[in-house]
Amino acid sequence: MRIMAQGPFEELARYYADLKNIPAHECVKGPETGTYMLTGRIAGTGDPFHFGEVTVTRCIVRTKEGFTGVAYILGKNLEHARLAALLDAMLQNPDRRNEVERRIVRPIEKNQKKRIYDQRRRVAATRVNFFTMARGE
What we know:
By secondary structure, the chain is an alpha+beta fold. It has one domain (2-112). Helix content is 42%, strand content 29%. It has helices spanning 2-6, 9-17, 78-92, 97-125, and strands at 25-41, 48-63, 68-74. Strands 1-2-3 form a 3-stranded antiparallel beta sheet. The longest helix has 29 residues, at 97-125. The termini are far apart. The relative contact order is 0.18.
């Protein structure tokens, strides 16, 4: 789900369009947009504090076979949440799981890893290492 929720919507929609036999489904809840309160901790161990809010869109779908899919995505893209929830439901169906993983999840994951690698490489090229020299007094 992380891969489908965090991946670019355009990429998800492109791979989804190539799937055959999309199951009939209904939206049980949403898609709807709201906010979520982020909580943080100083140094990861301190007392929790409210860090801020983030916009989240969620959707819950149920296929006619009875599989229920749930998705939460950052932002306001209702169709992204609906597609991610439908694909979650399809992943729960043993007859469709391998196809969805092979045709959607793995390609998106591969592209995400490449984007992360490229970004880290660009950042590393501009890295500056500072050091302190002790003066002998």
